[in-house]
Specification:
- By secondary structure, the chain is an all-alpha fold.
- Strand 1 and strand 2 form a beta hairpin.
- The termini are far apart.
- The longest helix has 22 residues.
- It has 13 helices and 2 strands; from the N terminus they run αααααββαααααααα.
- Helices cover 72% and strands 1% of the residues.
- The protein has a two-stranded antiparallel ribbon with strand order 1-2.
C-alpha cells in the first residue's frame, strides 16, 4: 500500500533547490523533485517545465545524457509565448550538439553545416539585443564568444565577448557567469603564454564555482589547473590532481569529465584550440 501526502512549498524555493541539486551533479534527483511538483497556475507549470529543461541541459553537458530535446519541447508547449530563457536553453543545446558529436568534442567549423553555424550566431545576437536585463545580456555575450571560439575557430573575436560577459556578471552578481568568463579568458591567456594571468583567472573561477556549489564545474576547472601544473614542469602533481578529478567524476556520473581527465593523463591537452580552417 502506498501512502501519498502533499504539502505546499513556495515555488521559488523549490526551483532554487532543484537548481542547487543540478549544480551539484544530482540531475536525477532534481528532475524527480520537479516532476513530483504540481501547480494550479499555467504560468507556474511553465516555470517548472523550463527549470526541468535547464536541469536536463546540465545533465547532458556534464553527465553525457540526452534529455534536453524532449524537456525543451515540453516547456515550449506550456509556454504562453516568446520566452527569452527558453530560447536560451535551445541556443545552448544546439551549441552543445554542434560542438559534440558521437560522444566526442569536435570544435571548429569543419564538417558542420555553415547555415546552422550562422543561424546559431544570429540567434545569440538576437538574444543579446533583446535581453531583459544585464545578466541575461551577459550570458548571451558569453555564448557569442563561445560560438566564435569553438565553432568558428575565430580566436581573436571571442575575448571581447568574454570581457563583456565578465563585466555583466560582476555588476549583476552572477558568480556562474563570472566563472564562465574567467574560465575562457584564462584559456586565451594560457594560449598566449601568460600562465600567471591564466592561473589567476582559473583559480578565481574554481573558487566561484565552489561557492555556487557547482561540483562538476569545479572538477573541469581543476583540470585546467592540472594543465598549468604540467606546463610548469610539475608533471607528478598534475597527474595526482587529474587522477582525483577522474575519481570524483566517476563517482558522480560525470562521464565526459572523467573522460577528459583520463585523456589528460594519457597526454592530451584539453585546452588545445580548435584548428582554424580559414572560415
Amino acid at each position: 500500500m502506498t501512502t501519498t501526502t502533499s504539502t505546499t512549498v513556495d515555488l521559488d524555493e523549490l526551483l532554487a533547490a532543484a537548481r542547487a541539486l543540478s549544480l551539484a551533479g544530482r540531475w536525477d534527483r532534481a528532475l524527480r523533485l520537479l516532476d513530483a511538483t504540481t501547480c494550479d497556475s499555467s504560468v507556474d507549470r511553465a516555470r517548472l517545465a523550463l527549470a526541468a529543461a535547464e536541469v536536463a541541459l546540465q545533465s547532458d553537458w556534464f553527465g553525457g545524457t540526452d534529455l534536453t530535446g524532449a524537456r525543451a519541447e515540453h516547456a515550449e508547449k506550456l509556454s504562453s509565448g516568446a520566452d527569452h530563457d527558453l530560447a536560451f536553453v535551445r541556443l545552448r543545446h544546439d551549441y552543445f550538439r554542434l560542438l559534440r558529436s558521437e560522444g566526442a568534442f569536435r570544435p571548429g567549423p569543419d564538417g558542420k553545416d555553415p547555415e546552422a553555424l550562422a543561424g546559431l550566431r544570429c540567434r545569440a545576437h538576437d538574444l543579446h539585443e533583446d535581453a531583459p536585463d544585464e545578466v541575461r545580456r551577459g550570458w548571451a555575450a558569453m555564448y557569442l564568444g563561445l560560438i566564435a571560439d569553438n565553432l568558428f575557430a575565430e580566436r581573436t573575436v571571442a575575448p571581447a565577448h568574454y570581457e563583456a560577459a565578465l563585466r555583466a556578471g560582476e555588476r549583476g552578481g552572477d558568480d556562474l557567469l563570472v566563472r564562465e568568463a574567467l574560465r575562457h579568458l584564462g584559456d586565451h591567456d594560457h594560449d598566449a603564454g601568460d600562465h600567471d594571468r591564466a592561473l589567476e583567472r582559473w583559480e578565481r573561477a574554481t573558487a566561484l564555482g565552489a561557492r555556487a556549489g557547482m561540483v562538476p564545474g569545479v572538477l573541469t576547472q581543476q583540470l585546467l589547473l592540472a594543465v598549468l601544473a604540467r606546463d610548469s614542469g610539475d608533471a607528478a602533481g598534475a597527474a595526482v590532481l587529474a587522477r582525483e578529478i577522474a575519481r570524483w567524476a566517476d563517482a558522480i556520473g560525470a562521464d565526459p569529465v572523467r573522460a577528459q581527465a583520463t585523456g589528460f593523463l594519457a597526454g592530451a591537452d584539453p585546452t588545445a584550440p580548435p584548428q582554424d580552417s580559414g572560415s
